[in-house]
Design a protein that fits this description.
This protein has about 250 residues and is mainly β. The chain has 2 domains: about 110 residues, Glycosyl hydrolase domain, family 43 (Tachylectin-2, Chain A, 5 Propeller); about 90 residues. The strands form 4 sheets. Strands 1-2-3-4 form a 4-stranded antiparallel beta sheet, with no helix packed on it. A 4-stranded antiparallel beta sheet has the order 5-6-7-8, with no helix packed on it. Strand 5 and strand 6 form a beta hairpin.
């Protein structure tokens, strides 16, 4: 086989392999898109377990109540899916929550090991509302978490490895932003919020994301460091023990 024929064979193999890979991704990884929101839906969040998948999103309407100083009202809509079945829209399950200016992202959702759907929504700058369903989205109970007088935004709710819960919010602190967190064993009763990042060299801490391996919980977040302008991912590890809290930080570029 001459060199030209060999190159043509290699090219044909790579072309077919790439085409097959694209076809496989199209066939096996993505469903056809569906419209979930009846109105202008924004900021979808999702959660899943072996038995249930959920999507929650925000829908807004203008504020028509002159007694409320707000540009609009946010309602929380929900859809659920069981294995082998189609998505089922549950309508509005939370809100209305007032907001001013540009619509913020206010939602976070989990499905815990008991099969409960738990949604955290920023009801105001000083309160988070916890919505809990024990019947796969048919109904929800509402519980308010008072976050004090300081303005808190962007609540993020996660289920811990030991079955408890973590709730993160972002607050202004000493002319910068940082992450605060609270803990709960049942999703209803919460501890006081504590500063999450103690290192003063880490500034503008935001976007915490949680995951767990075995009995340990890991939280990844972004931060500016005082020595430069780069955004560095920071790893913080929670130990599972409830009697004390220990963490270590590791900066990685």
């Amino acid at each position: 086989m001459n060199r030209r024929a060999a190159w043509l064979l290699v090219f044909a193999f790579l072309f077919l392999a790439g085409t097959a890979a694209i076809h496989a991704q199209t066939m096996f990884y993505w469903e056809a898109p569906e419209i979930f929101s009846s109105g202008a839906g924004t900021f979808p969040v999702s959660a899943f377990s072996d038995d249930l998948s959920v999507i929650a999103w925000q829908e807004t309407t203008p504020n028509r109540d002159s007694n409320i100083a707000a540009a609009g009202m946010i309602r929380v809509a929900l859809a659920v899916k069981k294995p082998g079945q189609s998505w089922e829209r549950k309508g509005f399950v939370g809100g209305p929550y007032p907001y001013s200016g540009t619509e913020p992202s206010i939602l976070s959702a989990v499905i815990d090991r008991r099969g409960r759907i738990i949604i955290a929504a920023a009801a105001s700058t000083t309160q988070t509302e916890i919505l809990i369903s024990e019947n796969q989205g048919e109904s929800f109970s509402r519980h308010r978490v008072n976050m004090g007088s300081e303005t808190s935004v962007a609540p993020r709710l996660y289920a811990r490895a030991d079955g408890g819960y973590l709730l993160f919010v972002t607050r202004g602190r000493e002319q910068t932003l940082s992450i605060y967190f609270a803990r709960s064993d049942n999703g209803i009763d919460w501890s006081s919020f504590e500063l999450f990042v103690q290192d003063r060299n880490l500034q503008l801490n935001f976007l915490p994301v949680h995951g767990s391996i075995g009995a340990e919980d890991f939280v990844f977040f972004q931060s500016f460091v005082s020595s430069g302008d780069s955004v560095l991912p920071v790893i913080c590890q929670f130990r599972r023990f409830r009697s004390h809290f220990s963490a270590f930080f590791q900066n990685q570029r």
